[in-house]
Amino acid sequence: MTKQPQIPLKNPKLIIFLLLIVLAGPLFFAYILVQKGNAYQFRLSNNGDLITPPVNISKLTFFEIGEKKQFSGDKLSGKWWLLYASPAKCQQTCQDILYSLQQIRTALGKDALRLERIFLAHPHCQQSVCETFLLENYPDMARATLKPSNYTSLFANIGNLDARNTYGEVYIIDPKGNIMMHYDANMEPKAILSDLKRLLKISKIG
Known about the structure:
By secondary structure, this protein is of the alpha+beta class. The protein has two domains: about 10-45, no CATH class; about 50-200, Glutaredoxin (3-Layer(aba) Sandwich), CATH 3.40.30. The chain has helices at about 10-45, 90-105, 125-135, 150-155, 160-165, 190-200; strands at about 50-55, 60-65, 70, 80-85, 115-120, 140-145, 170-175, 180-185. A hairpin with a 5-residue loop joins strand 2 and strand 3 (about 70). The longest helix has about 35 residues, at about 10-45. The relative contact order is 0.18. Residues about 25-45 have low confidence and may be disordered.
């Protein structure tokens, strides 16, 4: 039986170096992931707080501020919504948020028609003041309220009570009527816009 000739190693140092890369490479990569894991996770995650399980509003009975006409939550189905749960007393922060929500919708460009905004009045706020301000500044924004018991039940397990009473909170509602994302009042509008763009891009509805 004829022996196959062995090919001599022309560069042993290169072979050793390549073996070290093969053996040590995974360990080095794992170290980088551990050290930089938070940055990667932040980059890939949503800016808002994902609500799991989402809270459906389709069967809730809302009342229009001012006119007092009631409507069912399923009336909001079919589109994406930015809901602003107002504080008990609307001050400058409240006005800033309302302006930001308008700017966010405008920044969506051609997708702006897929998104609407709704102001949900706090049960203890002066609704007449809210109605006047909204009509003068944001007449295209839906305005609603709930019975105090329904309001309490709706937010029982989502958001932050103290923050909502003081500054208000922002929520995203999907086209099926699910409240699925929450933001504090101090969240940067660009962060909300980023999440919305992502949602609208991957969504086949609304």
